Amino acid sequence: MDNPEKADNGAPADRRDHSRGWHIKARNERPPEYPARFPVPDELVPWETDYPEYLPPYYVSPVVLANDSSLNPKGWADPEDTSLLDALPFESFSGRLPRDGQGRPLNPIGRTGIAGRGLLGKWGPNYAADPIITRISRATGSLELLAVQRRDNGQWAIPGGMVDRGEEVSRTLSRELHEETGVLLEMEQGRLIYRGYVDDPRNTDYSWMETTAKHLHLSPEVAALMNLRAGDDARAVRWLPLTPKTVRDLYASHCALITEALAGMARLNPFGLSEEDLETVAHLLRSLREGPAG
Fold first, then answer.
1. Which parts of 67-193 fold into alpha helices (H)?
2. Domains of the chain by range and CATH?
3. What b/e readout covers 171-190, taking b as 16+ CB neighbours within 10 angstroms?
4. DSSP state letters, 68-97
């Protein structure tokens, strides 16, 4: 893989430090069908740290098994038998991958408490794309995110999705945005916010999410022309006012992605915001970095 790109706030777009919030949900949350995760305290996350008691349950969703591409011609998942694959991934956005005794790629951040692939189809990284679209509401003066409410758990989220095999990421960003929200935008113009590991509750020791996130901030005039329509995977779509609570309540690592986008806006002002709008962004960023009250 190429070296990690720089995010628009000047920091590396790839983050591997689980202590910064990129490997919390992957150890402490899980979809309803997953078995309970084996406990993994912070100090025992790295594979390099000996943990002889570590016995995570092995789980692969029936949905993934039913879409085994070696058995189902229309299947989207890798075979459970890795010997049927031409090759297993050696690298990802996170760099060179650790491997187990059978040569299978291991989560680059460390242990998650579950082995197998869970709900994810690919051994190793499962690539997604997340288009971050924001505006300043002229009615309220608040910063808002074009967000979808997930049908599976009801959480609000960035309207992203999986990268199809051979698809350009910018194409995925635009396609998923349109499918999820009804909005057509050229995401090639978006600013790179992050590219790397995602702290997702579906992650396992052998399969995990990695994403490319790009950000576009729209003028009130352009945003007002959009006709929002929720796609099949969403309960609803809306301009979600961004407050410390709504940002922290977003799905998976989306809070961290939004925080990265805000940092780029506050530092570089890439979208030419007014001083008043910049202060709105900076105030929200300060509130997020201060942490929850109490």
1. 169-181
2. 18-290 (3.90.79.10)
3. ebbbbbbbbbbebebebeeb
4. BTTT-TT--BPPSSGGGSS----EETTEEP
Q: Which two tokens stand for residue 294?
A: 């109490």
pTM of the model: 0.87
Enumerate residues 6+ apart whose C-beta is below 8 A from 71: 79
Phi-psi group of 124: left, alpha or beta (phi > 0 → left; psi -120 to 50 → alpha; rest → beta): left
Cα gap 111→117, rounded to integer Å = 13
Residue 211 in 3-state DSSP?
Answer: strand
Residue 89 CB partners (closer than 8 Å, separation 6+): 97, 105, 123, 124, 125
- Residue 241 has, within 13 A of its CA and on its CB side, a CA count of 9
Distance separating alpha carbons of residues 121 and 64, to the nearest angstrom: 6
Report the candidate in 209, 286, 288 with the shortest Cα–Cα distance to residue 248: 288
Distance CA 150, CA 225 (A): 24
The torsion angle over the Cα atoms of residues 99, 125, 5 and 215, rounded to 10 degrees, is -160
* pLDDT digits (tens), the chain, 294 positions: 333 344 554 443 444 444 445 689 999 999 999 999 999 999 999 999 999 999 999 999 999 999 999 999 999 999 999 999 999 999 999 999 999 999 999 999 999 999 999 999 999 999 999 999 999 999 999 999 999 999 888 999 999 999 988 899 989 999 999 999 999 999 998 999 999 999 999 999 999 999 999 999 999 999 999 999 998 888 999 999 999 999 999 998 899 999 999 999 999 999 999 999 999 999 999 999 987 754
